[in-house]
Amino acid sequence: xxxxxxxxxxxxxxxxxxxxxxxxxxxxxxxxxxxxxxxxxxxxxxxxxxxxxxxxxxxxxxxxxxxxxxxxxxxxxxxxxxxxxxxxxxxxxxxxxxxxxxxxxxxxxxxxxxxxxxxxxxxxxxxxxxxxxxxxxxxxxxxx
Length: 144
What we know:
Largest sheet: 5 strands, mixed
Distance between the termini: 77 Å
Strand content: 5-15%
Low-confidence stretches: none
Shape: elongated
Structural class: alpha/beta
Radius of gyration: 33 Å
CATH topology of the domain at 67-143: Nucleotidyltransferase, domain 5
Helix content: 25-40%
Mean pLDDT: 84
């Protein structure tokens, strides 16, 4: 009892050439190229660097500090102490007035949780560029 593999006739002794291309080496090379691409892509860092205070805080006094509240609504509308700011130039003009004061008031930035981050980041970047040093985020409990 023997098992016959291939054709049974003696005339067909030459094997047929394989017509399909071997895809395994091509896939291996593509996977290596993808891994190299992923490793070499630089990390994108879109952040606003802020100078945080260092050292001991000043002593507490009974005088309440002046507070300016900047609200950013869900649609990107910016309010300065409840007053609508029409454009970025008006916001920067008010920030210039705050930065020019000898004792700057505290600026409380209160974004809505539905607002796009780029609007809030734009307000913080403007404050940093102009020189507003006492700025803080308030109302963070809505993000929890």
